[in-house]
Amino acid sequence: MKIVVLGTGFAGSALIREFATRGHEVVAVSRTGGGTWPAGASSVTGTVYDPAFVAHVTADADVVAVALPALSAEGGIAAGVEALLPAVDRRARLGVVGGSAVLPLTEGGPRLGDTAAFPDALRPRVTAHQRALDMLEASPGEIDWFVLVPAAEFGPHVPGARRGKYRTSRTALVSDSDGHSAIGVEDYAIAFADELETPTAHRSWLTVGY
Fold this sequence. Notes:
The chain is built from five helices and eight strands. It has helices at residues 10-21, 51-57, 76-88, 123-137, 185-197; strands spanning 2-6, 25-30, 41-45, 63-66, 93-97, 145-150, 167-169, 204-209.
């Protein structure tokens, strides 16, 4: 597959490495065009917020993977998804790195971002990820998208060690027997690549954790 990855930060760089290691043709898109990638991955300078660039870079892609920050000066994840929807149309599957706070910790419970313990400073990120998910759900039916949502504990501060295993859920964030919801970035990338190679989620979210 030819996979275009938009965003080369914490999650995006892990996706690029995992996809390339599996033998896929990977195009890493960032505003600087930098990065050191394995064989099979190339770097392109550009921004998802430029419609002409997006149309060009995704023209022959099988998959477009979105690993953008929740918030940015250009509009973050919500603006990125909005810019991509007209470009992917029926031509490419769209996979998005989601945010855990839009999902409940337990089935039927409140969103993680709506719990009393959730930091107020992070609530704008919740809004951004929810807007992106709402736009995807309202998109034309021919667009094949999925959002892979990491566990609650996920980020540069807890990169984790590669275990080569994970669990998924379609009802709530994945937690272990102690109620701990976590996933390392390399195992998140494994789950994302597995979903691309053996699709199970169509026009829906899927969450992953240990």
